[in-house]
Specification:
Strand content: 25-35%
Low-confidence stretches: 1-6
Number of helices: 4
Helix content: 25-40%
Shape: globular
Mean pLDDT: 92
Order of helices and strands: EEHHEEEHEHEE
Radius of gyration: 16 Å
Distance between the termini: 17 Å
Structural class: alpha+beta
């Protein structure tokens, strides 16, 4: 992990029984638009719904730049059966000195409640702790996002604090629930 000096990080391909978790690509922009144009999917995301392909292309390009600059690892979650990019998972705010980072994820609503995000997160969390040797992962979620909290707690994340009025989302102040997971590997 080389984020303190802003060197690009290698984004490995991870594989599960149903998913290929691979580096985000520019040609994922159309699938990204499908995900980020759904009001229910982005309800707790903190940005307005996307309505045009150009917005998704700009967002994808911005994240690819962040990866090139060593700020994050950004995976596209691809369903093996269809070859379609159905979501994303990100490790960001990586701190090699303190061996910690933050995890984020999105999944196309069509694929909710199928266990796919759990499948993806299991691989990404294992990678963070075993390969990157992180000691701690953090997650910042809206306290009303019960599904996100449920998946985090499933993996052992613990609620550590509530930040009132932390994010201004579409003109409304929103709270933030911070959760943390400490590696049992030292």
């Amino acid at each position: 992990m080389a984020t303190n000096n802003q060197t690009a990080l290698h984004v490995p391909e991870l594989e599960t029984s149903r998913l290929l978790i691979r580096c985000l690509r520019m040609d994922d922009a159309a699938a990204m638009l499908e995900i980020l144009s759904d009001e229910e999917t982005v309800r707790y995301w903190g940005r307005p719904v996307m309505t045009e392909l150009q917005q998704a292309q700009d967002y994808t390009r911005e994240n690819l730049r962040w990866m090139e600059d060593g700020h994050c690892l950004y995976w596209g979650i691809e369903e093996k059966a269809s070859g379609k990019m159905i979501g994303t998972c990100t490790l960001f705010k990586l701190d090699s000195t303190n061996r910690r980072g933050e995890i984020g994820y999105l999944l196309n609503r069509v694929y909710w409640h199928l266990g796919l995000m759990s499948e993806a997160m299991e691989s990404v969390i294992a990678y963070a702790f075993t390969v990157l040797k992180l000691h701690r992962l953090e997650a910042d979620t809206d306290p009303g996002n019960a599904a996100s909290i449920r998946i985090l707690e499933h993996f052992g994340f613990e609620r550590e604090g509530l930040f009132r009025d932390r994010w201004l989302v579409n003109g409304v102040w929103c709270d933030s629930l911070m959760l943390g997971l400490v590696s049992n590997q030292g």
